[in-house]
Amino acid sequence: MRQEKLFSLLDAFQIETPSWGYADTGTRFGKFLQPAAASTVEEKLADAGVVHRLTGCCPSVAVHVLWDFKAGDDPAQVAEMARRNGVRIGSINPNLFQDQVYKFGSACSSDPKARAEADRHVQESLRIGRETHSDLLSFWMADGTNYPGQDDIVTRKKRMEAALKSWHDAMPETMTMLVEYKPFEPAFYATDIADWGMAYLYAKQAGPRAKVLVDTGHHLPGANIEQIVAWLIDEDMLGGFHFNDRKYADDDLTLGSIDPYAVFRIFHEIRTAAEIHGRDVSKIAYMIDQSHNLKPKIEAMIQTVTTAQELYAKACLVDHAKLQDAQAQRNIVDAEECLRAAFYTDVKPLLAQWRSGHSLAADPMAAYRASGYVEKITAEREAARKERGENSSPAYA
Ligand code: PSV
Ligand code: MN
Questions:
Q1: Residue 170: which CATH number?
Q2: Residue 217 CA: which ligand 1 atom is closest?
Q3: Which domain holds residue 240?
């Protein structure tokens, strides 16, 4: 591939970072606090702005409604705060899982109070979306049952269909709805949107602006994610990704930390859809959904973003003519070598060159470490926590 084409593909490759990836998060066993972690939406947007300034490819920030907006907040002001930090508000993620009312689900609950509260929250999320000029409404529902017989499976399906359709129809014309699936957790018997087939059907029934969201951590072991991706693109139903990596379940580790070749193969299917099948892949929303609690937040984000860029660049380098030729001859070894050759190419020098063309540091991580930003926010945020009377000295930095 000509360098010029690779660089223009990299120009178009933008990744959204999640506000919650800058804040302290934990596992269900506890949280390890980081003195530099963001607590307010302003701090999250400031950190996201730093990541975008250093990488040049993260212009939008996903927000989680309950975690980022309090009653009475003016969404337009949050959008302005984002702008001041050089970013914009990206996907709006309603929270239909934390309130006590959702004990038996949200849209699928047999309790009309839970369904009404879910509707109220989504209408509020839509208002936030309109006022921040977001174009994505991203749904992940924790709905499901924990025991056989707990509720009627098909009745729950119908409740979900009705809710998604009404929310789809309430969206402004400019918005796309993303439907995310996950096989288990927190539901441990039957999750109401458990896999891509269910998400596909729900999205189809909701309306033309609903698509499927693939979270790379939301599959049972052994699932062939790149095949799911290839099928969804071919059906024009791939809305976007939540990138992260995993070893066991929904581990939310940084992208490519466990299996970079799997991420490369996903990108290869996206490039194949564009290069060979003439598909428009420009609307796919690349987003990060990681909340690992040991790595420093901003470093973890930069590491994931640069890893995504590297693996995408490698996938762009696959020689499609050679691959098609080998496939036509049923030469499996040479066909596979086309993928392996691209995967093993060192793209770091190319990316350094792409960055220098955009007046970016060749190595965003080194530039971040040299910037003094983490020292600055550690001091500022510790002081702010002290003022609020919160724990200001976690045991480990
Ligand atoms: C659920 O596990 C999920 O992947 C959804 O996208 C949520 O919005 C996000 O994680 C919360 O961290
Ligand atoms: Mn997710």
A1: 3.20.20.150
A2: 4
A3: 3-388
